[in-house]
Write a structure and sequence with these properties.
Length: 144
């Protein structure tokens, strides 16, 4: 499957880092370092623009290394890039650590994962079929 990409950054295209990787790392494309204070957030531009077939979405997810080592996550995880969006990919990072974190130009800040999306039509009904679980949610099936 192919996705069209325009790279207006000064960095290489995102790529899979290993043969079994699900996501491609995306890099910050910034003119100067950005400091994110504890519990602060920042929109980090990437210089990348996509064109996907209808029926695909691109999810923007955190990188586990950034989360563990720096306390950095993607705020609206997973972020969704719709097939008809043509603007620059921006990543909303949040600093969940107790220290200020600096984002540098070229730093791998998130990962892109492409997924198929099914379109549905709602069928409005008065009553839903019963299940064993019923209305139970938020831990109703146990925690272990």
């Amino acid at each position: 499957m192919h996705v069209k990409i325009t790279n207006k950054s000064k960095h290489p295209l995102p790529q899979y880092e290993t043969i079994g990787a699900s996501g491609m790392d995306v890099r910050a494309n910034i003119s100067e370092s950005i400091n994110i204070e504890p519990l602060g957030r920042a929109l980090i531009k990437t210089g990348l623009f996509l064109e996907m077939e209808i029926g695909l979405e691109c999810q923007v997810r955190p990188r586990s290394g950034m989360a563990l080592k720096k306390g950095i996550s993607v705020l609206n995880t997973p972020g969704t890039i719709d097939a008809d969006y043509r603007g620059e990919i921006g990543v909303i990072l949040v600093n969940l650590s107790k220290e200020t974190v600096t984002i540098e130009d070229g730093e791998r800040i998130a990962q892109l994962i492409f997924c198929k999306v099914e379109k549905i039509n709602f069928l409005e009904v008065e009553i839903l079929n019963e299940t064993k679980r019923g209305e139970g949610g938020f831990g109703s099936t146990g925690i272990i």
